[in-house]
Each structure stands twice: as structure tokens, then as C-alpha cells.
Amino acid sequence: MTFITAQEAVKAVQSGDRVYVHAASMTPTILTDALTDRASELSNVEMCHIHTYGVAKYADIQYKDSFFVNSLFVGANVRHTIKQGNGSYTPIFLGSMPKAILNGDLKVDVLLIQVTEPDEHGYCSLGTSIENIHAAAETARVIIAQVNKYVPRTFGDSYIHASKINYFVENHTPLYAFAMPDSTKDEITIGNYIAELIEDKSCLQMGIGSIPNAVLANLTNHKGLGIHTEMFSDGIIPLVKSGVITGEHKGILKGKIVSTFADGSQELYDFINQNPVIEMKPTSFSNDPYKIAKNNRLISINSAIEVDVTGQVCADSIGTNVFSGVGGQIDFITGASMSKGGKSILALTSTTNKGVNKIVPSLKQGAGVVTSRAHVDYIITEFGVAKLSGKHIRDRVKAMVEIAHPDFRESIEREYFESIK
After folding, report:
1. Which one, of 224, 3, 17, lies nearest residue 106 by Cα?
2. Does residue 387 sit in helix, strand or coil?
């Protein structure tokens, strides 16, 4: 294995290429920065990725003639590109992304990844983010890898052989790490409600954030829980160590924690390093509803930006302004609906930090419906639990009004029924 500089490696990128960038805590910023430095030599290079961390220099409007950002899930560091015109958003289920890459809809020309040093057999680990990397590697003309000793070596489908990589760049930098914020009083209440719906021997899907952490904090007395998710963070560590999470009742990969991302603190990265309990999988596996459904009592826990009183869920935009992405919400809601004893839960506080109502008579104009009202099972706020599955519209409206903020309940109900006259 011969190392070259990042500047030398990214010379392989040509104008008109689609460049796929490793996501989340594995974002190879040294490579994207070096590529940005070549802006004056390039035109119409598409930077494609899920959410990435760090400063995305290529997303600066000054480089609009050189780089266009195609976000499969919009992160904070590139959100501005949609309004500025040097970027856009591709609505797509997380589990469908590898297929779109392989069938040519999103064919990758150059792949930028971050990996461990090769083991004695020549295999590098993709660490904390497997996502769509294997599919991208199959179509890429060139693969460039940052080799970093700080990347944890994970198990599962986490490996790429060094012989597949065209250029190696050595740069040893700690991964992007962060601590979860403390849950608010309302989030803790929501966490309590969700925990009451989780039975022993259930298998959980949840993301990262203060509501998932509040849920996990309430599961210390549960038994035999499993994890099949797309993402996890520090909150699972004490439950694994205490024996609450064992995976012994899972229907697929029994005893394993299945995920495609892991983001959090350095403690989390240390926990997953060389840990055979962690099974990292591509999104085509982790987010396959048929595989998800093989786990009995699959509990899917997701969030929303806004929900109307009939159960339509907006989770990717604020009106027409794209905020995040479709992600894996429908993948897991579908899987939960097919799982024996499964439940799907949408959790959100009833208002924003600024007091704006999230339970509404109708979604904002231009809002994206990620989850249809036909998919919804439970919706939970700090004011209670609304079980919508099997309910007709009038009963749904009543249930949703009851979990809305008291200041808005009367107006929500009045506006909805006036709108249908």
C-alpha cells in the first residue's frame, strides 16, 4: 500500500463526474477539502451523499460552477444549497439507495471513503458508516480512501479489500464525535409513554437524539430486548452492559445489534471497535422491510416535523423548505406493520421551541408527506398517545386534538371541520 497526498489523489476526479462521499462520522473531509481546492479546474461535478459532518467547503456558493450538491438526506452543512441553487434533494427511501446506484439512476464515478488500516488479510473496515458504500464501490471508476487509525474496526458487511482501492491517503484524525443533549421535561414524558408500549422481548428501531435517549433511559427494567435499526448512539451502551439488550429473541441475526450507522461520543466508537455483537450492514439489508419484519414485536420509533389531524406525517420539510430527508421512516414502519406484534410510533413535541404548533388541521403548503395516514399506527406527544390505526377520520381528529397543546386544541378542531364543509 502506497500513500499519496490528498491533493494528488483527487486529481482523478474529472469534470462531469458524480462523486459519492462517505457519510456521517466517517466523512473524509481531508479529501473533500482537497477536491474543493481544485474548483478552478473543474465544472459540473456532482457531490452526492447522505448527511455528512464538518464543513462542506464544496457547498459554498462561490463554487457553484464547479460543484453541485445532490443530497439524498439533507444535513445542516449543505442545507443552504437548496435555496441558493447550487444543490438539490433527491427524495428516496434509505433502503432503496443501493438499488438506485447499481441500476444507474445514481451511478457513481468516484467514491471518497474513510477506512481503517488494512488487517493481515488486506481488508479495511468502513467503521461506523456502511450505508451505500458497497453499491457505490461496484460502479465507481475510482475509489479514494483516507486511512485513519482512529476508525473503529466493525464487524458485519463492513469490509472492503485494499485491492479495490485505487488511492490511499494517510490522515489520522479523531472521528466527528458529539454528546447527546439532555432530554427536556416534555421529551422525558414522551419517552415514558413510548416505553410503556414496549414489551419484553421486543426488537427496537430508533434514531439518535433526545427522545430516543429518553426512551432508552426508561427501559432499564425490560428484558430480552433486541436492536435492528438504521442508526444508534450512546444510549444503548448501558442497556447492553446491564443485559437488557441481548438480542436473544430476534428472528434474524439473533444476538446481534444490526445497524448501518453509529454516531455519538468517543465512548461509543470505543464500544463498537472489535465488538462482535455489533453487525454493521448496508442499507439494502438494515432497511429491507422483509428482513425487518422477521423480528417479532418490532417497534419502530421515528420523529416528525408536523402531523395533520388525519395522520399525514411531514418529516422532511418545513413547507417547501427541505430540512432533512425521507430516510428510513417508511422502511421501518412497513417492516413493523408486517412484524408479528409490531408497532410503529411517531413521536414529537406538540410545539416547536418557539411555540409553533406541530399538530395542525392541514400540513403547510408544499410540505412533503413522508408517511401517509394509511401507514400511521401511534402518534405520541407530551400530552399523550393517539392510536390511529383502524380509526376513521373523525375519530382520528378527536384523538389528535387530545394530544395537541391545550392552547391550540379548540382552533385545530374548528379549522379542520370548517375546511371540509
Report:
1. 17
2. strand
Please give the Cα distance from 319 to 169 (Å, whole number): 42
Its sign, for the CA torsion 366, 374, 50, 216, is positive
Grid cell 479514494 in the structure block, residue:
144
CA 307/CA 400 separation, integer angstroms: 9
What are the tens digits of pLDDT across the range 66-104?
Answer: 999 999 999 999 999 999 999 999 999 999 999 999 999
- Catalytic positions, please? 230
Q: Which cell goes with 241?
A: 452492559
C-alpha cell at 142: 475510482
Q: Give CA–CA dist 145/111, Å, rounded.
A: 8
Mean pLDDT (whole number) for 37-59: 97
Distance (Å, whole) CA 373 – CA 103:
31
Instruction: For residue 361, give the nearest of 407, 397, 314 by alpha carbon.
Output: 397
Distance (Å, whole) CA 326 – CA 316: 6
Give the bridge partners for 111, in sequence order.
Answer: 20, 143
Strand partners for 77: none
Identify the band that residue 178 occupies on the pLDDT scale cut at 50, 70 and 90.
confident
Q: How far is CA 256 from CA 246, 259, 278, 300, in A?
A: 8, 10, 6, 17
Radius of gyration of the chain (CA): 22
How many whole angstroms separate alpha carbon 254 and alpha carbon 384? 33
Q: Is the dihedral of CA 304, 75, 83, 107 positive or negative?
A: negative
Residue 106: all three cell numbers together: 445514481
Residue 335 CA, chain-centre distance (Å), reads: 16
Looking only at the bridges linking them, the beta strands covering 321-322 and 317-318 are: antiparallel
For 246-256, give one letter per residue: b (16+ CB within 10 A) or e: bbebbbbbeeb
The type of residue at 366 is G
Residues 156, 280 contacting (CB under 8 angstroms): yes
- Region 128-150: what's the mean pLDDT? 98
Contacts of 394 (CB under 8 A, 6+ apart): none
- Residues 329-387 have pLDDT tens digits of 999 999 999 999 999 999 999 999 999 999 999 999 999 999 999 999 999 999 999 99
Contacts of 142 (CB under 8 A, 6+ apart): 12, 13, 109, 110, 111, 166, 167
Closest CA to 38 of 144, 124, 128: 144
User: 159-161 and 123-125: which strand pairing?
Assistant: antiparallel
